[in-house]
Amino acid sequence: MVEVEALTKRYGTLEVLKGVNARFEPGRVTAVVGPNASGKTTLMKSILGLVVPDGGRIRVGGEEALGNPAVRARIGYMPQDPRFPENVTVGEVIRWIQELRGERGKGLDALLDLFALRPALNQPTRVLSGGTRQKLSALLAFLFDPPVLILDEPTAGLDPLASSRFKDLVAAARDGGKTIIMTSHVMSELEELADRVLFLLEGSVIFFGAVEELRARTGEARLERAVARLMEGA
Ligand code: ADP
Questions:
Q1: Has residue 233 got a pLDDT over 80?
Q2: Is there a contact between 135 and 162 (Cβ–Cβ < 8 Å)?
Q3: pLDDT one-digit tens code per residue, 221-232
Q4: Are 34 and 27 in contact (CB under 8 A)?
């Protein structure tokens, strides 16, 4: 469970989050949607402790997250554009993270196979394609079986096989009771996975509820159309 209460953030005069309230529940995938620059990444980074909000509260698993870096260990994160130190190999990146965590991680072998990453183990990360970097990022996010997953455009750059396997992994994590917060520009993908939608516009929550509720409210069966209606109405 991740709870966000009256979260505010400004950069100079720009109010990026204007009192955001949201509860991300276990066993649910919540899609965070909204136009560019609406504050989606800032919200997710605030939960991760990568952005320090100006006001409000964040709780992860009931524990205060602001100023409490230990909470970060409970969150698996796939950033929009994953970067790794250039001259280390994929295998070394994985080993470093394992050493930092002091554990091997659950299902490393299965994840290496799922994303066909074994051939890349000895490659320096600088030569990896965007898709392979994304697969490594997915492996690291899921490796330690965290109760919360924050996935920022996770399938960008993945080939259809990897993307399909990734979606199965997310669905299994959801069914296993993980709290999943996800963004994607690919509405069909959110349609497949998301139970709930948080719609942000210029830092304010315009809609937060079940996908069916959004469909009922907008009279649109397809998520893409429903979100478009919200954008028109806002
Ligand atoms: P989204 O993920 O919805 O596209 P972001 O959260 O990335 O939106 O950004 C929201 C707004 O905050 C944008 O106008 C962006 O330019 C601004 N912003 C984000 N990070 C910073 C920063 N570090 N300094 C100044 N402005 C920022």
A1: no
A2: yes
A3: 898 899 888 888
A4: no
Supply the DSSP symbol for 54: S
pLDDT in tens, 76-88: 999 988 999 989 9
Query: Would you give the DSSP letter of residue 230?
Result: H
pLDDT at 151: 97
Ligand 1 atom with minimal separation from the 34 CA = 3
Q: Write the DSSP assignment of 111-168 as a string of letters.
A: HHHHTT-GGGTTSBGGG--HHHHHHHHHHHHHHT--SEEEEESTTTT--HHHHHHHHH
C-beta 39 within 6 A of ligand 1: yes
Mutate to test the pocket of ligand 1, among 7, 8, 41 (most ligand atoms within 8 A of CB): 41
The answer, yes or no, to whether any atom of ligand 1 lies below 6 A from the CB of 52, is: no
Report yes or no: 178 and 148 within 8 Å, Cβ to Cβ: yes
Helix or strand (DSSP H, E) at 15 = strand 14-24
Nearest of 21, 33, 7 to residue 197 by alpha carbon: 33
Q: Please calculate the CA angle 63-69-70 and round it to the nearest 5 degrees.
A: 65
Neighbouring residues of 179: CB distance < 8 A, sequence distance ≥ 6: 1, 2, 24, 25, 26, 27, 28, 147, 148, 149
Q: For the whole prediction, is pTM greater than 0.85? A: yes
Quick one: DSSP state of residue 69?
G
- Using pLDDT thresholds of 50, 70 and 90, give the confidence band for residue 187: confident
**Percent of the chain whose predicted confidence (pLDDT) is above 90:** 84
